Amino acid sequence: MNGSGSSFAKPGYEPGPPLWLLAELTYRCPLQCPYCSNPLDFARSHDELDTAEWIEVFRQARALGAAQLGFSGGEPLVRQDLAELIRAARELGYYTNLITSGIGLSEEKIARFAEAGLDHIQISFQAADEEVNNLLAGSKKAFAQKLAMARAVKRHGYPMVLNFVTHRHNIDNIERIIQLCVELEADFVELATCQFYGWAELNRAGLLPSRAQLERAERITNEWRDRLAAQNHPCKLIFVTPDYYEERPKACMNGWGNLFLDITPDGTALPCHSARQLPVQFPNVRQHSIEHIWRHSFGFNRFRGYDWMPEPCRSCDEKAKDFGGCRCQAFMLTGDAANADPVCSKSPQHGKILAAREQAEHGALGLDQLQYRNEKASRLILKV
Amino acid sequence: MNENILLKVPTLRRGYRFQFEPAQDCHVLLYPEGMIKLNDSASEILQRVDGARTVGGIVAQLQARFPEAEGIEEDILAFVEVAVERFWIELR
């Protein structure tokens, strides 16, 4: 676990500290959401870092400046050592976030995690009504359990973020979604329209909302914002639009390897949750120190700076603003991760985005045609 | 209005944590999935937010600590106003 090995650091380029550490503790999950950001071939590996290995990752990343730590997955609650990991992280000075579906949570665990020093709990919902929620989650009891746990989280004094992944089959209920979040006393509400990675990309034709759906949802969200502000209500609504309706790409992850460090269940380190699919070799914490990974590894330096960019990014006067967009999206839609993100209207492949928008207007797929994220489907995908 | 604020006791909102970050060499305010980097004057103020001191008490302390600085009270009141508006702190 030392920093030996050659350095791919770019001369003159100083990356920012990895302020955000995402610990994907496991790919195991009781739900089957068809927009899961986990890799399609997650069934390939059941190998997980053990407690001591995770705590060593936390210690090293903290020394490099990581301040926010997200416990994620899969469903992090399936890890039996979660309370121990929380305690260790909190003692190192992290702000600790549990990002959970709420399935497997109990009032007893909520109290135990608080005692261990957990700062915040985020619960994700699939929809605001029981039937659609349970259908999307692939579980009959999911919705009632989530409601009960959201109430328990607040009862125990935690700040709470509620996360709703929205898509064409639930976005029209945004009014009800926001109402529910306010009723549950959420401090922050993320109304995140599906981003098309992992299982969501596979199901894009059944998930991408139409422009009219999106505009209506944004209008209703803004009306609620005004209403909450008028009441001096602390609940904050965060609306994330899918970049498929933009003409310029997002500054993905604030630049490659510049803020965000994701450690996957088996210890592979990634600059974002979906980078594993790229034809780039990424380092593993079992072989290298976090410092080596962040500063010197090939994977984390691959798209730093600007010298890797082809046209139209290379000569673009906006490249310092958006870094050419998302490498994973470029790879998925053009076959080359160095290309301009096709969301950009300057990209020669922008037509793919236009075609997806067109499909969202006509010929979108139904709920019953989605590929649910489960072990069986993942193994089938592996065979292809 | 200002006199009223001076008598109030500021506390950090639940789930918000103020701490020094050696790697960034500054104080920060941490909250669910987010972080605000604070400048020196904001950190001088927040260091004194302990759930017991009033805004007026913080003003008096900082005036004593920085006797040569002008307009400390206005600066503190302006910061408190912004911090309340953004729901970082609550006044009791």
Structural Rg of chain B: 13 Å
CATH topology of chain B: Arc Repressor Mutant, subunit A
Number of strands of chain B: 5
Outline of chain B, from the CA principal axes? globular
How many angstroms separate the termini of chain A? 35 Å
Poorly predicted residue ranges of chain A? none
Overall pLDDT level of chain A: 91
The residue-averaged pLDDT of chain B reads 93
Class by helix and strand content of chain B?
alpha+beta
* DSSP summary: helix tally of chain B: 4
CATH H-level superfamily title of chain B: Coenzyme PQQ synthesis protein D (PqqD)
The helix content of chain B is: 40-55%
Count of helical regions of chain A: 15
Can you describe what's shown?
- The complex is a heterodimer of chains A (384) and B (92).
- Chain A is built from 15 helices and nine strands.
- Chain A is an alpha/beta fold and 384 residues long.
- In chain A, strands 7-6-5-4-3-2-1-8-9 form a nine-stranded mixed beta sheet.
- Chain A is globular and about 50 Å long.
- Chain B is α+β, with helices and mostly antiparallel strands and 92 residues long.
- Chain B has a single domain, classed as Orthogonal Bundle (Arc Repressor Mutant, subunit A).
- Helices cover 40% and strands 23% of the residues of chain B.
- Chain B has helices at 2-6, 40-46, 55-65, 72-85; strands at residues 10-12, 17-21, 26-31, 34-37, 89-91.
- In chain B, the strands form two sheets. A three-stranded antiparallel beta sheet of chain B has the order 2-3-4, with helices on one face. In chain B, strands 1-5 form a two-stranded antiparallel ribbon.
- In chain B, helix 3 (55-65) packs across helix 4.
- The longest helix of chain B has 14 residues, at 72-85.
- The mean pLDDT of chain B is 93.
- The A-B interface holds A 17, 19, 63-65, 67-68, 70, 93, 95, 97, 119-120, 122, 157-161, 187-188, 234, 236 and B 13-17, 19, 21, 23-24, 28, 30-35, 87.
